[in-house]
Design goal:
By secondary structure, the chain is mainly alpha-helical. Helix content is about 45%, strand content about 10%. Helix 4 (about 115-125) packs across helix 5 (about 150-165), helix 5 (about 150-165) runs antiparallel to helix 6 and helix 5 (about 150-165) runs parallel beside helix 7 (about 185-200). The protein starts with a strand and ends in a 21-residue tail after the last helix.
Length: about 280
């Protein structure tokens, strides 16, 4: 193989002034100083350009996006809200709605206005009122009593929970569920909350249903007397609630018996629970 020809690249348009070192073969490969040989034998330029860092999406970018109209509720109570598209599409529900249509208006006739406003507040700020405090409590709400006796405070977060489920926002769903357990409430309030949960959630949603059944399973012998017969109505209207509470009570009794070293339920199979006098 012939020695390569080396040329020092000049700055002028012509080759005058170039210093050449040539081998004896006219077909010798020419490499200009300042170039390198690539793996495939081709000459490459100087150092590769550094990759540009990804551009950060700022809050201003969100605010520059188009406004979307949201019609909440129906009839005289219907309310129009607006939100920036770039924030709304963080919800897969809205992302699909907006990609399937060129309209800038979305109707949400069956959704709760207060829950939707909590969702929008969460989109813009990462929280919604009342905020969770560092000590594991909720900030004071001057418009609400310290103890929820009607279920309104419990239902506020329960409605945010079911809306977050619809909008496919798991982080908001988790936040709202955590707030439910920070509210002081009475038995009637808890029963109103239980009724909403069992009428608006799927039976497979154990995240919210299991704590409800656990609450009533532990306290039903006391709390049912404080609900003026509505506990019975709840059991009749929602047999799944009655079954879940009963299952919790029986499971707890079984665990209690096992801790004491007593016979489990499988040991009683085939035995009668009633004794008869012999000879009768």
């Amino acid at each position: 193989m012939a020695d390569p020809e080396v040329r020092l690249r000049g700055s002028g348009p012509a080759d005058e002034g170039d210093v050449e070192m040539q081998g004896g073969d006219e077909s010798a490969e020419v490499i200009e100083v300042g170039e390198t040989m690539g793996e495939d034998g081709a000459a490459e330029g100087g150092a590769a350009e550094e990759e540009k860092p990804a551009q950060r999406v700022t809050f201003v970018d969100y605010l520059k996006s188009p406004m979307i109209e949201l019609l909440i509720g129906n009839g005289d109570a219907q309310t129009q809200l607006t939100a920036h598209k770039a924030l709304l599409i963080k919800s897969p529900f809205f992302g699909q709605k907006l990609s399937a249509s060129e309209s800038s208006r979305i109707e949400l006739l069956d959704d709760d206005l207060d829950a939707m406003s909590c969702f929008l507040e969460y989109l813009y700020t990462g929280e919604y009122f009342p905020h969770k405090l560092a000590g594991g409590t909720l900030e004071a709400d001057p418009s609400a009593p310290k103890t929820d006796s009607t279920g309104d405070q419990l239902l506020k977060h329960a409605k945010v929970y079911t809306l977050a489920e619809k909008l496919e926002m798991p982080s908001l769903k988790s936040l709202s569920h955590s707030k439910i357990h920070l509210i002081n409430s009475t038995a009637p309030a808890e029963l109103a909350y239980a009724r909403y949960v069992y009428s608006h959630t799927n039976r497979t949603d154990l995240t919210i249903r299991k704590p409800v059944a656990s609450f009533w399973g532990q306290r039903s012998h006391v709390l049912r007397h404080q609900t003026e017969g509505t506990f019975r109505d709840m059991c009749m209207d929602f047999p799944e609630f009655a079954f879940d509470v009963l299952s919790f009570v029986l499971d707890a009794e079984e665990k209690r018996a096992q801790k004491k070293g007593g016979a489990g339920p499988e040991d009683d199979v085939g035995k009668s629970a009633r004794k008869r006098a012999r000879g009768l």
